[in-house]
Write a structure and sequence with these properties.
single chain, 691 residues, alpha+beta, Beta-Lactamase, 4 domains, 6-stranded antiparallel β-sheet
Length: 691
Amino acid sequence: MSPAEASAAGGEEPARGPVRPGGLLDVLGVASVVLDAQGRIVLWSPQAEELFGYPAAEALGQYAARLMVHERHIELVGKLFSEVMRTGQSWAGGFPIRHKDGTTHVVEFRNMRLMDDNGDVFALGLAADQSTVRRLEQDVALSERIVKQSPIGLAVLDTDLRFVSVNPAMERMNGVPAAEHVGRTVREVLPSLDADELESAYLRVLRTGEPVVDEPAVGRTPADPDEEHIWAVSVYRLEDALGNVLGVATSVVDITVPYRAGVEAENARRRLAVIADASARIGTTLDLERTARELAAVAVPELADVASVDLLDAVVEGRRSRLGPAEPAVLRALAVRAEPETAAGAAETPGTVARYAPDRLITACVRTGEAVVVPRVTAEDLARIARSPEAAELLARAGVHSYLAVPLIARGEVLGALDLRRTRTPAPFDDDDLLLARELAARAAVQIDNARWYQNARTTALTLQRSLLPTHPRVTTGLEVASRYQPAGATVEVGGDWFDVIPLEGGRTALVVGDVMGSGINAAATMGRLRTATTTLASLGLDPAVLLEHLDKTTSGLDHSIATCVYAVHDPRLRQVRIANAGHLPPARVRPGRPPELLDLPTGVPLGVGGVPFATTTVEFEPGDELVLYTDGLVETRSHSLDERLDELLALLDAPAGPLEETCDRLLRELHHPDNHDDVALLIARAQELS
């Protein structure tokens, strides 16, 4: 009597109900179409209606090729149809069909010839959406690959609890070939195993559908008949898409040495959790100090009570550092984390640059690129951990009893060290801690290296850009001028925004604000070249539109650079400003006693696009009037429309006239939104009476 029959006799028959059809064909949506010898549709299934879009009333009697195939494929379809009808050989493959809605779908076909009792020949086509077929094939292939390569023993049993299949891991675990499993029960395959509890669990899962997870089983198998093993067995009921019970699947894991396996698993889970946490928390920005703080925050308290991230000072400054055997290590503490916080005295204060003698442990760590572990710290060890006797005394008072330092290595270069100490945690550092510390250091080092090179590059670009921006007098002929340049945030590359105030002949003054698209040193360098070109062209006294045309040609030759620019010339005697715009935001004019306004100028195209002329607009500019030129970093945000922000700019300008420097500060303070990671150039000019 089978286990299932025995169960039935005992009143534990699993609820099967009447046999129902399998759901795989429903998932595939297999359509059936029958054609007569002339290729006309004589049978049309509901699935065909769904697949091709035509109801039976529209499809029956029609020539299938004309109905379902694009004109360019009709000849090919005719040849395939003739070959099937002539030879009787089936044809299978994917073919594009035309749905009723006009779209084209690739359908997987299997065509074959049929013959009735009168000798009449027909063609049967079975079809399914190719993407659905491929998806199921991929799912099956993936499942098969996972099952075969899994180190866990996996098996499928039918409703009579007889093996249907086992994977290689189960073969090795049982010491019985897969073929000798199939069709037999657990009791028959492994007679030395107490199968009662296992079969009871299988039957319970069959009946209720509730899985059994990590049920222990004890016994011996032919794989190792002399030693008793313990396994954790999990059982799950298998059902098809329609809910038919097919049997059970079981997974088996050997847990013969439960304590050791439990400890190793717990350590592995702990390491994975810490590493996953580190992956999410370290390197969220390209700020060097913040990245170091993120590393220290992950290390404490998971790995240590006190963590310090120390970088070689030369590395922080952008230089490579290779220590000789007799050289000290000059380290800068970027971040310190301690729990409790009172233990922070066991590490250098962040920002401190400390000199460690050649015989110190951390010096050896950064010199050799090898980790240093002192499981149980003695007084002699403290002298080699601390940089000075005074620091050693602080370590002793903090209760440092175990020490671990791992190098921070990125792209073959030692950047510094992750310095770990235990003061409150009683256990000393062990091999698992060392492995975890190395993993953290390896992941964090790349982020730290990215941050320090980015920081160095950004500092270089910012220095270059600031050196290229003008210094101008507060007052020129007929104008009072104030300006600001504000770079993007610390974790954003420097852009190419610029402004300029250029004295011209006849007491006139040129005002320029521009923005090179892009960021970094290239943008800053391009900005410098455009500023130089603008200054040179301005000295020729060109009309603003003509100047922009020349500047457009210059920009076209600068490695496909694109820039926007507003160029204005103030003439104090005519009391007017002549302005031309190259794709830039419109300047604002503020006139005493009137609402501020955005000047209505032809926008023009950005510099570097070429082929489009620019236009010059003349506007009145009386003494007391103000002209505000700015780049998009001042007003653009991700959460507000540009119109809203420009209205806000005008509202801020609608205030009693005050010092221009204060106006600049107010606009930056109120408008430069935190989520706008872009540079800002701002230039405000106020017309004055000529003396």
